Fold:
Amino acid sequence: MNGIIVKAIAGFYYVDTGDGIFECKARGIFRKNGQSPLVGDRVVISLTDGGKGIVENISARKNALVRPPVANIDRLFVVVSTVDPAPNTYIIDRVIANAENSDIEPIVIINKCDIKDGDDIYRIYKNAGFNTFMVSAQSGEGIDAIRSLIADKTVAFTGNSGVGKSSILNMLDENLNLAVGDISKKLGRGRHTTRHVELYPVCDGYIVDTPGFSSFDMEQCDVMRKEQLQYCFREFAPYIGECKFTSCSHTKEKGCKIVDAVNSGEIAISRHESYVQLYKEAALIPDWQRDKSK
Ligand SMILES: Nc1nc2c(ncn2[C@@H]2O[C@H](COP(=O)(O)OP(=O)(O)OP(=O)(O)O)[C@@H](O)[C@H]2O)c(=O)[nH]1
Ligand SMILES: [Mg+2]
Ligand SMILES: [Zn+2]
Structure:
């Protein structure tokens, strides 16, 4: 039977086959090969007596996140709020670049639009070519528009603590009943570190509630080469290869078409600033070290 691992606890894998959820153990061979099943894995299971199962085969992964440990994410909802906390474009752009590099479609959700309008931040991400939404988890405005983006997909939610991820998820499906605000804070870090990762069936797809940015990471995060970074800023695409120097870093060179586009307002200043910052950080990691960690 084919299925998807929706939960993993203490060596047991819970596999949704469409006909129910089966508690499974993994074949010993996986451990021998240093392979470990992840939540989100597409698997083949065989059933044993008593309605339990064994994971027989794991399909090749599209991608894998390190924190939270989950595979085959299709979309990443990058949630920001207009206030409390205010958006930090560098952190947003870093998360987006890593998502692009992992073949995950980033979607920008601007929350708390009932308190303050999100026009400025909306413009930046809409113009850069992202699906961008303004919502309020308080009034419910805009929430319906994001439902269809979850159907048939596995979607991770990420964003700074307090932006309203759990509030949005509760709006999408009241059965989730996730802790919000102060209650969530009181449960504290311990909850994030000890709790298991789970895919929840929501809006005909799966969602995974992801802890805040600080603990959110992707496998490729530290292994991206500086030369790779330009491809993770999608609005750069029309200019790549057009610069005066073929080895252009697009940070400050004369004759750089990307710098020109920033100066003429085609590319947002904040997006380019994030690129320059990430480029400097990537340049600090020597290639031999990067290759070792692959
Ligand atoms: N006014 C207003 N308040 C909101 C909105 N969305 C969330 N809040 C409030 O913002 C606070 C944080 O919301 P949460 O949903 O807990 O935020 P979170 O992103 O899940 O935070 P962590 O779980 O700590 O990562 C709560 O007090 C919510 O009531 C909104 O659209 N408008
Ligand atoms: Mg939360
Ligand atoms: Zn250039």
User: Anything to note?
Assistant: Confidence is low (pLDDT under 50) at residues 189-194, 213-217. The pocket of guanosine-5'-triphosphate (ligand 1) is lined by residues 111-112, 114-115, 136-138, 159, 161-167, 180-181, 184, 212 (CB under 6 Å).
